[in-house]
Write a structure and sequence with these properties.
alpha/beta; single chain; 16 helices; 9 strands; seven-stranded parallel sheet; TIM Barrel; about 10% strand; two-stranded antiparallel ribbon
Length: about 350
């Protein structure tokens, strides 16, 4: 059985048999590649994101190096907060909001965002990418999960405990619900925009949900992400939910409406498989730091993960996205090791 990369990716997402597990990497385009840094030397981050031709060039860069099965459009999870005027600024400590969420006025600004017009550059990049990589490779569109976007908005940037968002939910649950559900509607609109432009798969990133207790996850994060997937249930594309800190929320997250769960490295794939059953598609979850190691070690890790999953209903990926100090040679060794499974 020989499959194209696109066929392989879509089949694995649907728990169908594949000739080998598909592979792609979160943040596979970006800061660890010298060719990306050359683009950034001439253009700001937001200029690259907002210019479809530049976003496409950056997305294609890793495809010229590695035999991955999918491309993920170069964009950012914070395009919705940026569109509502939060003023997203990237510094050494991560993104910060020059105008963090404060209340009713900010809810009104969120509700006023028209995704089709405000974020048309994302659709433009996806359309141009589809012309470049279809029908060979799969194309992934994405968005941030409502809880994660709300965390950035309320905290004003990255947080170790998202305590201000929790406090908002405890003191004013109606305000928190309206913020999360308002974000959910915009996230769904953004995913629909990308599918209509040519995306084959969509992924929702819930990077901060692992900071919630199980009870708070079910009360705060889960209803909003369920709303996202319910609003795009009519779209005939696989839907992936990435959850960092997945161990405490795995079974609950599996009820969100996604077809695939992408998990971080704090949970063994074999444990996730045992808890969710043999047919629930999984994605992940190699520790990105493993790519600092020698090729033979990387190959062993890949073979161990394939053994844990049976190699089916599994998409090889990382537990978190690539970071700047990961060597391109380590990424190649990883992708090559997955390809060798065939």
């Amino acid at each position: 059985m020989s499959m194209s990369p696109r066929e392989r990716m879509l089949a694995a997402c649907r728990a169908q048999r594949v000739d080998r597990p598909p592979v792609w990497l979160m943040r596979q385009a970006g800061r660890y590649l010298p060719e990306y840094l050359a683009v950034r030397a001439k253009h700001s981050f937001w200029e690259v994101v907002r210019t479809p031709e530049l976003a496409v060039e950056v997305t294609l860069q890793p495809l010229r190096r590695y035999d991955v099965d999918a491309a993920i459009v170069f964009s950012d999870i914070l395009v919705i907060p940026e569109a509502m005027g939060a003023g997203v600024v990237y510094g050494k400590g991560g993104p910060t909001m020059t105008r963090p969420f404060e209340g009713e006025e900010d809810l009104a600004r969120l509700n006023d965002v028209d995704v089709a017009s405000s974020l048309d550059y994302v659709g433009g990049a996806v359309r141009l990418l589809s012309e470049n990589i279809h029908p060979k490779l799969a194309l992934i569109g994405f968005a941030g999960a409502p809880l994660t976007l709300a965390s950035y908005l309320v905290e004003g940037g990255p947080s170790k405990d998202i305590r201000h968002l929790k406090a908002l939910a405890y003191h004013d649950p109606d305000m928190a619900r309206r913020l999360l559900f308002g974000l959910a509607d915009k996230v769904a609109d953004l995913l629909r925009l990308q599918v209509e432009a040519g995306a084959d798969v969509v992924q929702v990133f819930d990077s901060w949900a692992g900071l919630l207790t199980p009870a708070d996850y079910e009360a705060l994060a889960l209803p909003a992400v369920r709303r996202v997937f319910a609003r795009i249930a009519d779209l005939d594309v696989p839907k992936i939910l990435y959850l960092r800190g997945a161990a405490s929320h795995l079974e609950a997250a599996a009820t969100a409406g996604a077809d695939v769960l992408s998990i971080d490295q704090t949970l063994r794939l074999s444990d996730a498989r045992a808890r969710l059953g043999p047919d629930f598609p999984l994605q992940g979850n190699l520790d990105a730091a493993e790519l600092l190691g020698p090729p033979e070690r990387i190959r062993c890790r890949v073979q161990e993960q394939a053994a844990q999953t049976g190699g089916q209903a599994w998409i090889a990926n990382l537990g978190q996205g690539l970071v700047p100090d990961i060597p391109p040679e380590g990424v190649k060794a990883y992708v090559d090791a997955v390809v060798e499974l065939g």
